[in-house]
Design a protein that fits this description.
Length: about 210
Amino acid sequence: MIHDQNPILAFVWSGWTATWPTALLAIIWAAWLISWGIGSFFSGRTEKHVRTWDSRAYRIPILVGAVLLTPWTERILGIQPLWNVGTGGTYLLAVLTVAGTLFTWWARIHLGRFWSNAITRKEGHRVIDTGPYGLVRHPIYTGLIAAMLATGIAVGTITALLGTVLIAFGLWQKARMEEGFLTAELGAEAYGSYCHRVPMLVPFLPQS
């Protein structure tokens, strides 16, 4: 076997990525990351952004969560899954993972050149409240959290689940910071009205 002959490759392709069908989850996320990275070149000019130092409030939990979710953490710590959802369950959760990532792409395409990986105000920035932004105020984060939850449940290790929770917390924290920033930049009347009409992360959640 090539994994036995090459210890580096054996380590890279280890943990929950070394067995099928959980390896399918790694393929899905690899495809999303590559396509997302390519899409980052198509964005409008940034006029203002949150300072990098201030963004550590959401970047740190997301980074730590991502490390915990990787199969290498599972391999190094020798952690075993808490449960096994079975082949059918894994395929179902893979479908949900794909659905979550597709939701992020729908939102990103709909947002167009206003999209940014950081919290920014783009040139000509305005409130977008149609398409997925008519369902939730942060559909990219909603899709990511849903996809991460499906992946974490499929993997079933304590590190993967903890990583999923940390990523979800980081995205929630980023959404809160983004809303404060956009309220100040776009005006409380415009963005505040949007916040009163549309749920933050969970679709169809009643607003007060």
